[in-house]
Amino acid sequence: MTAMPLLRAERVTLGYGGRAVVHEVSLDVTEGGVGLIGESGSGKTTLARAFLGLLTPMSGNIWYGNQTLKKADLRAFRRDVQPVFQAESLDPRMRVGASVAEALPRAERHRVPELLGQVGLDPELAGRRPHQLSGGQRQRVVIARALAVSPRLLILDEPTSALDVTVQARVLDLLAGLGTERLLITHNLAVVRRLCRTSHVMFAGRLVESGPTADLLARPAHPYTRALRDAVPRLGGAPPRARGRAEAAPAGSGCPFRPRCPLAVAACESAPEPRELDGRRVACHRAEDVLAAAVGEVS
Ligand SMILES: Nc1ncnc2c1ncn2[C@@H]1O[C@H](COP(=O)(O)OP(=O)(O)OP(=O)(O)O)[C@@H](O)[C@H]1O
């Protein structure tokens, strides 16, 4: 029997000022790491904010165990689900030891050296301020802060994109070794390859493909997954060019990827329903053709 996921989005629509930017997304945060991938503006951070309880769905529900977030014990939720922000979120005036201590319950403040050690930092660095650390060290301090309350799940939004490639790899190794569950948001497929057993690909506020990360990378079933894979092959690769909303078809007018899709046909003028295919879930009329072309072009 599969364990109940800690967090689950059920047909969640999210937006700002009454305008939806994430449409009917269903996603379970399961074991082994979950990646949420997509280009700038696809809605990843908006969905992460809903998972952190910072944005209320316009429709649908976020489930925390067997309760919706509206009814859940928020004290337990805030301990179990911790965000890992970018290193710039550290208070520049605060010594990093004090910064980690602030995240600990009062009676456990003696654990600062232990936590710094856990993220591979020399406890002697506790007396420094953020600008006296390297980017990778600062990111480790942010992770130590998140770990202070022994969370069950970390929600990481581009945790390493500001770091150079070798430092990025070391921080990813640290995250992989922690044993804490993670939902990782990134535009970089090399990052999810290391940290996430399952991945979800988002385009224009919709999930277009979900499944085991290894399968998505080896044999994408959606042309957008394939384009992402081919655009960003390595750690440290540049993000896919942000093309803006104008290049996604407006909601209600067929497949949103159609204007950019090399495989679009007349059928794509009706929106594809997500369906199960070859161990993944994909929303594309031509998924069989994309899958069949493991190598080379489809037309
Ligand atoms: N506070 C806000 N008010 C209004 N619109 C917003 C707000 N935040 C985000 N948006 C819009 O919602 C859409 C999705 O943005 P979101 O930040 O979730 O995307 P993203 O995939 O995380 O992008 P990035 O990788 O650049 O962070 C975009 O069109 C964005 O302009």
Automatic annotation (TrEMBL):
Belongs to the ABC transporter superfamily. Residues 7-229 form the ABC transporter domain. It comes from the Bacteria. This is Peptide/nickel transport system ATP-binding protein. GO terms for biological process: peptide transport; transmembrane transport. PANTHER family: D,D-DIPEPTIDE TRANSPORT ATP-BINDING PROTEIN DDPF-RELATED (PTHR43776:SF7), TRANSPORT ATP-BINDING PROTEIN (PTHR43776). PROSITE patterns: ABC_TRANSPORTER_1, ABC_TRANSPORTER_2. Residues 233-253 are annotated as: Disordered. InterPro entries: AAA+_ATPase (IPR003593), ABC_transp_ATP-bind (IPR050319), ABC_transporter-like_ATP-bd (IPR003439), ABC_transporter-like_CS (IPR017871), Oligopep_ABC_C (IPR013563), P-loop_NTPase (IPR027417). It comes from Nonomuraea pusilla. GO terms for molecular function: ATP binding; ATP hydrolysis activity. Residues 233-252 have a biased composition (Low complexity). SMART domains: AAA (SM00382). Keywords: ATP-binding, Nucleotide-binding, Transport.
